[in-house]
């Protein structure tokens, strides 16, 4: 299995991604760091620990990461999307474990030594912890096999502003640092995540399962489905973080993912957090730019909704 460090902000779609990663046969979750985004880093860690306990998962270390972002303090989360507690207001039984005493940055650095050359970093929240880790240890990229990051919007509108996707908008300087570092990054933007959805009949399959953890995932999704009525005109949800997890697990291979320069707007203007990808000259096919280590996922052949449900239910 692929050893994966997950950096997350659960988060409803983060919860679904976590459920998938716990069930995916070719993934071994070796550490989880949390960051403020959908909710605070501390609340995200509590949610993660409670979800892991309910799942009866192995004692993966869960470390609290950055509360504030590089150039601004934490702004209070996205309660209207993910609920005030980050998991749709669902009250999970409190798990017995407490967060790891290390910071998320230290956990990531430790894991990069333990799994040198093999560690896969999967980020599904703002990139603050990653930026701090790169600053604390510039040799980190040399020990990481690959990075998969859910974030950005290249040719489609943003979601938190007209220009920006939430994970990048919440810490544009950190996203820029991730892209600038010398490692292979697969960026999974809204261009492709908005094309993958989960529908009410699939949510009902989770709700009908006998395992309390799987049922809780179905319950948590209820709030998210309400939010997405405004986008899709029906109860459903976009599979942002789960798609990044499925790609990191190698369960789908993107059909269009050129290596292209991506610049992040770090200004304070209306473009803040925009990811500007140089896709000029791409009309007749995908052209990789020499030396660029950032792949931008623009298409994934098949729809992943049912794969997600089947894996979680297996
Ligand atoms: C991203 O922002 C968060 O709200 C989601 O969890 C996902 O990581 C989508 O823009
Ligand atoms: Ca997230």
| Proportion in β-strands | 15-25%
- Major β-sheet, in short? 7 strands, parallel
- The N- and C-terminal alpha carbons lie at a distance of 17 Å
Mean pLDDT: 97
Ligands, deduplicated: beta-D-ribofuranose, calcium ion
Helix proportion: 25-40%
Order of strands across the main sheet: 3-2-1-4-5-6-12
Number of helices: 12
Helix/strand structural class: alpha/beta
The helix/strand series, from N terminus to C terminus, equals: EHEHEHHEHEHHEHEHHEHEEEEEH
* Count of DSSP strands: 13
Low-confidence stretches: none
Using only C-alpha atoms, the radius of gyration works out to 18 Å
Rough shape? globular
Task: Give a written overview of the molecule.
The chain is of the alpha/beta class and 314 residues long. Helix content is 37%, strand content 17%. It is built from twelve helices and 13 strands. The strands form four sheets. The chain has a seven-stranded parallel sheet with strand order 3-2-1-4-5-6-12, sandwiched between helices. Helix 1 crosses helix 12. The structure holds beta-D-ribofuranose and calcium ion.
Key structural traits:
single chain, 314 residues, alpha/beta, 7-stranded parallel β-sheet, two-stranded antiparallel ribbon, 12 helices, 13 strands, 17% strand, binds beta-D-ribofuranose, binds calcium ion, purine nucleosidase activity, hydrolase, glycosidase, IUNH
Structure at a glance:
Keywords: Glycosidase, Hydrolase. By secondary structure, the protein is α/β, with parallel strands linked by helices.
Topology:
Elements: E1 2-8, H1 12-23, E2 27-34, H2 41-55, E3 62-64, H3 79-82, H4 104-114, E4 119-123, H5 128-136, E5 144-150, H6 166-170, H7 172-180, E6 185-188, H8 190-193, E7 197-199, H9 200-207, H10 212-232, E8 236-238, H11 240-248, E9 254-256, E10 262-264, E11 275-277, E12 294-296, E13 299-300, H12 305-313
Parallel strand pairs: 1-2, 1-4, 2-3, 4-5, 5-6, 6-12
Antiparallel strand pairs: 7-8, 9-13, 10-11
Helix pairs in contact: 1-10, 1-11, 1-12, 4-5, 5-7, 9-10, 9-12
The structure holds beta-D-ribofuranose and calcium ion.
GO molecular function: purine nucleosidase activity
InterPro entries: Inosine/uridine_hydrolase_dom (IPR001910), IUNH (IPR023186), Ribo_hydro-like (IPR036452)
Keywords: Glycosidase, Hydrolase
